């Protein structure tokens, strides 16, 4: 228990020092908070908050469906997938912003290589940053306006043939 309290306090320090998108306004207007437990080996535990499907632009069929954790408050978006050492192939994180704007993420304190998909207000994938380097502070911009960002394990978009123009659809649990 004492170990968990110390880790929680250290995580709060990281949240204050890190911001995944310093150039954008991140207030969502819906400032609810969720708690995430810390596991011994893999960092914060995944908390299923919904499901997300990737939908083919050409055929309109579902390419793949994953479980998602949702980050929609400033605190949740700043934390993102930082400090996690592993994530299942069937899991991802959905970041929700109040309005579409150019986004830029980084991999600071993120140990998992990721594919980062930027999605516009019409739920269309407008940009993909593949195989993001763990722990890098390099900016990974959207290049276009995005209201949603989906993070999954690196290689996910290649393995599932997800590309620009495909869409997402999600439901909360």
Compact description:
The protein is of the alpha+beta class and 173 residues long.
Describe the protein's architecture and organization:
The N terminus is likely disordered. It is built from three helices and nine strands; from the N terminus they run αββββαββββαβ. 15% of the residues lie in helices and 40% in strands. The longest helix is centred in the N-terminal third of the chain and has 16 residues. The relative contact order is 0.20. The strands form two sheets. A seven-stranded mixed beta sheet has the order 7-6-8-5-4-3-9. The chain has a two-stranded antiparallel sheet with strand order 1-2. The chain is of the alpha+beta class.
């Amino acid at each position: 228990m004492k170990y968990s309290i110390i880790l929680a306090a250290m995580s709060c320090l990281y949240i204050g020092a890190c911001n995944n998108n310093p150039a954008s306004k991140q207030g969502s207007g819906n400032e609810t908070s969720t708690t995430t437990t810390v596991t011994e080996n893999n960092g914060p535990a995944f908390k299923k908050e919904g499901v997300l499907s990737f939908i083919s632009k050409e055929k309109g069929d579902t390419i793949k469906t994953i479980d998602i954790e949702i980050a929609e408050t400033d605190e949740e978006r700043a934390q993102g997938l930082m400090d996690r050492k592993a994530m299942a192939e069937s899991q991802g994180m959905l970041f929700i912003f109040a309005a579409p704007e150019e986004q830029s993420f980084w991999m600071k304190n993120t140990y998992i290589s990721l594919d980062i998909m930027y999605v516009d207000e019409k739920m269309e994938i407008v940009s993909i940053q593949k195989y993001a380097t763990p722990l890098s502070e390099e900016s990974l911009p959207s290049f276009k306006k995005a209201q949603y960002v989906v993070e999954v394990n690196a290689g996910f978009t290649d393995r599932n043939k997800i590309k620009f123009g495909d869409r997402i659809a999600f439901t909360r649990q």
